[in-house]
């Protein structure tokens, strides 16, 4: 008679059971050894190494959710398709990183985008003022039609319909730069990637994020979360309201005094920390090079100065300058005459955009404040031209990108899989969202007698 075998111990089972590899290694790098690190995703040394596993995990979750379901029906046993897509994505990310490093980001964010948005606000108000006039053909033209007459573009029609052929050509040009040559040469692969990107951008993303209710709901959620955190704070004395009636008045005064001292000490520490941070920032900003050395602050020479320089140079006629060299000389070199071509104020387009959004031209007090800010920017232009790029590059750090990637992972894949799609609210719900946003006031002393600023 055979004796029954004893059950295996916990230690033996824990030794024999292999450790489960992360999803990114199992799906994207199946041939990678378990102890080997991830391949570097970014070529820049300024990017933290902690960003690679998080971004690889996000890519693996996206491929498992959107590619594996339909590819497993086509070829169930093919395990090389997902790693091949990951290889192409790595190449695209590295190409985009190289181009972002060459981009003049301060000029894009502080100059180009504010100028475009300011022009959009002005054209919108101009179109709204022509609704009940003869410009609208007796009221037959709608507001989108009048706005489209002021800013016609082939990418979008007057009814808000996106031109898919226009965006198809744009994506094709981007793929020509981003994809490897052997992948771009394959028409089937290029067309599949192009149509997938078009479907994601034109069908799933752009029609939703450009809706007013989506923008208003995002602002409402951002402001509501901050106010809920501030509103959830319950003072320690409020929980014991029933017992305060039995306490002595001297104890109440002592508690009030101690709480006042605590608040004053906290405010003093915050002021000291802000002062030290401001002093450190000012010192680091003053050590930066002169603004004129950046291409952002250079100005093209006037034709009169160019003609005088050409006439004074004997070899200018015998050695004509190519257009590329002339453009690089005009826009790449710092001007030597700082008095005749002053440096542009980097904060000025942002202030113009803010005044256009708030419509300060029709409000006397706001117009006075805006004029004072104009004078302040004019006086502090050299310092602000150093400070704003410094603050931008400091905020766009590896920690910021890491937190942004983790937030995108939690939002898009809360349980490892895509969350339920957001349903479009009805017209009544959209009106309620807009009313809540207009009626919202900032918390604290700034919320007292604050007029609604979101009306256009």
Automatic annotation (TrEMBL):
PROSITE patterns registered for this protein in UniProt: PXA
A matching Pfam family: PXA
Domain PXA, first and last residues per copy: 48-227
Ranges of compositional bias, category Polar residues: 10-19
Molecular function terms, GO-annotated: phosphatidylinositol binding
SMART domains cross-referenced by the UniProt entry: PXA
Bias (Low complexity): 311-323
Recorded superkingdom: Eukaryota
UniProt feature coiled coil, ranges: none
Region (Disordered): 1-20, 293-339
Record-given protein name: PXA domain-containing protein
Species lineage: Eukaryota, Fungi, Dikarya, Basidiomycota, Agaricomycotina
């Amino acid at each position: 008679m055979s004796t029954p075998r004893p059950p295996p111990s916990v230690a033996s089972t824990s030794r024999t059971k292999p450790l489960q590899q992360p999803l990114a290694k199992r799906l994207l790098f199946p041939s990678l050894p378990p102890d080997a690190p991830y391949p570097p995703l970014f070529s820049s040394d300024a990017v933290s190494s902690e960003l690679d596993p998080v971004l690889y995990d996000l890519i693996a979750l996206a491929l498992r959710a959107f590619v594996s379901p339909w590819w497993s029906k086509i070829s169930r046993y093919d395990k090389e398709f997902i790693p091949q897509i990951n290889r192409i994505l790595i190449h695209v990310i590295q190409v985009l990183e190289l181009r972002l490093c060459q981009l003049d980001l301060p000029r894009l964010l502080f100059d180009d985008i504010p100028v475009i948005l300011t022009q959009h606000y002005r054209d919108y108000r101009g179109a709204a003022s022509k609704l009940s006039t003869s410009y609208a053909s007796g009221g037959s033209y709608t507001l989108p039609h009048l706005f489209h007459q002021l800013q016609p573009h082939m990418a979008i029609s007057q009814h808000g319909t996106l031109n898919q052929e226009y965006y198809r050509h744009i994506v094709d040009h981007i793929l020509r730069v981003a994809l490897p040559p052997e992948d771009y040469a394959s028409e089937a692969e290029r067309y599949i990637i192009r149509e997938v990107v078009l479907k994601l951008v034109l069908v799933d993303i752009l029609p939703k994020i450009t809706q007013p209710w989506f923008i208003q709901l995002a602002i409402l959620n951002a402001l509501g979360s901050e106010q809920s955190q501030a509103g959830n704070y319950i003072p320690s004395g409020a929980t014991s309201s029933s017992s305060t009636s039995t306490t002595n008045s001297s104890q109440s005064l002592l508690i009030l005094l101690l709480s006042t001292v605590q608040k004053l000490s906290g405010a003093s520490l915050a002021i000291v920390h802000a002062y030290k941070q401001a002093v450190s920032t000012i010192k680091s900003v003053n050590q930066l090079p002169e603004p004129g050395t950046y291409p952002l602050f250079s100005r093209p020479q006037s034709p009169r100065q160019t003609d005088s320089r050409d006439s004074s140079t004997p070899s200018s006629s015998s050695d004509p300058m190519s257009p590329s060299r002339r453009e690089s000389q005009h826009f790449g070199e710092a001007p030597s005459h700082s008095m005749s071509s002053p440096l542009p104020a980097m904060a000025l387009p942002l202030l113009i955009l803010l005044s256009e959004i708030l419509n300060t031209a029709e409000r006397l007090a706001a117009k006075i404040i805006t004029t004072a800010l104009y004078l302040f920017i004019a006086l502090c232009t050299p310092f602000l031209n150093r400070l704003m790029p410094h603050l931008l590059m400091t905020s766009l750090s590896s920690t910021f990108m890491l937190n942004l990637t983790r937030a995108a992972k939690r939002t898009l894949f809360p349980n490892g899989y895509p969350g339920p799609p957001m349903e479009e609210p009805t017209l009544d719900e959209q009106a309620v969202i807009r009313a809540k946003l207009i009626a919202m006031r900032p918390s604290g002393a700034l919320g007292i007698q604050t007029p609604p600023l979101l009306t256009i």
